[in-house]
Amino acid sequence: MYSKQIPTGFPKNFLWGGATAANQLEGGWNVDGKGLTTAEVVKKAETREDFSMNQVTTESIAQAAADPTDNAYPKRRGVDFYHHYQEDIAMLAEMGFKAFRLSIAWARIFPNGDDATPNEAGLAFYDKVFAECHKYGIEPVVTISHYEMPLALTQKQNGWASRQTITAFLRYTETLFKRYKGVVKYWMTFNEINAITGGFTGTGAVDADLSLNEKAQLRFQALHHQFVASAKAVAQCHAIDPNAKIGCMLARMQTYPQTPNPEDVRAAQLSDQLNLFYTDVQARGEYPEYMNRYFQENHITLQMDPNDEKVLRENPVDYISFSYYMSTVTNADQDVEHFHDGFVFGEKNPYLQTSAWGWQIDPVGLRISLNDMWDRYRIPLFVVENGLGAEDKVTSDGKIHDDYRIDYLRAHIAQMREAIEDGVQLMGYTTWGPIDLISASTSEMSKRYGFIYVDQDDAGNGSLRRLRKDSFYWYKHVIATNGAELDAPVATAKD
């Protein structure tokens, strides 16, 4: 008779925490030798339906580079973590964080991307940030490239469209691995690598004047360069610091068929393949066979160096991290084969509620994704983004009652616990934006995810004062009980 102990609850070493990005958090965009980044030339969207973060031209870049202010470019100011990091990390420690996911701004280390020597002031800043984390027993989880690269590489060689960018990236990664050996244990190469085939945000390449097919060709070629750069960075990391772990990161889009019609089921399967293709390459070390037909039908021809496939094969990642916010529905009538960007937003699911931003809330989908990915890859998984963007209101006595956020997170954590009992090996959970920051898509401040409220509006006005929301105290209790108590009464802010 077969009998094996079923895991119950979260592992003792589970990495509870939160996740951020330098270009949405730090500010300090023009101090201490930092160069301009691609994120800092994308204007704030005019409406919440305006996802123009990839609509960048040579002319708009020149205009942005000549603008000495942050008025139209909120990612330049972030929420000034650059000068508030001690206060902010102390508040994360108060919640009991075990891990803090943050990214390093490449242009803070190499202002032009390919400088001969690194900028010491930039390295020293992260020395201080990591030391502050370790003071409280918080493990830094570091994204090497999170939706930003030095703008100079765009202007010089059109970003990742050029194979030369691999060399610049590896100089940057080698610098990081040597400087922070023994300091940073967990690394990941590219944030939501599937975003690269959406355009400028991921590629750093200007392609506004190209046709759809030309854009697809450029973006998938840029993606190949990132795959090679990531694999070589894995090799570097393992050689320089054998105790460190280095992973990849995907924006997971769980897709369901709209009906049991086999054609709809096949459409959902294809959508899932186009989403997981990225982790197939990075975790399995090779391009999956199903992409051969996709490339052929979409007239995409990748240029590879003779050694590229060997590099990918010999350097798979140690773990897979991913963001999960929602699921989607598709059918055979949707032209999914031309959704080159890896983010397939399909039909609405009538069984799910929807956030104010139109994102469908599906906690069970997280359990489904965890099981699917564990079955597919059999290496540790790490949920590094999950959360609810909402317009929080401050009461007259300075409190923020965000029970809607607590409900969202509670439901997702409960499903992670179910997945662990299913047998999934899950390393940790870092919610998106533990402190309010600038929105990635629209660059607004009003869309808030944090446990910590930052007094700043969309125009950059405000005191930058940090306030604890109700969710701050709730998450503190979740961490203190290692996820065992999700329904405990919620204390409210006393300050």
Automatic annotation (TrEMBL):
One of its GO terms (molecular function) is beta-glucosidase activity. One of its GO terms (cellular component) is cytosol. It holds the Pfam family Glyco_hydro_1. One of its GO terms (biological process) is carbohydrate catabolic process. Keywords: Glycosidase, Hydrolase. The active site is at 385 (nucleophile). The keyword Hydrolase applies. Gene3D superfamilies: Glycosidases. It comes from the Bacteria. Belongs to the glycosyl hydrolase 1 family. This is Beta-glucosidase.
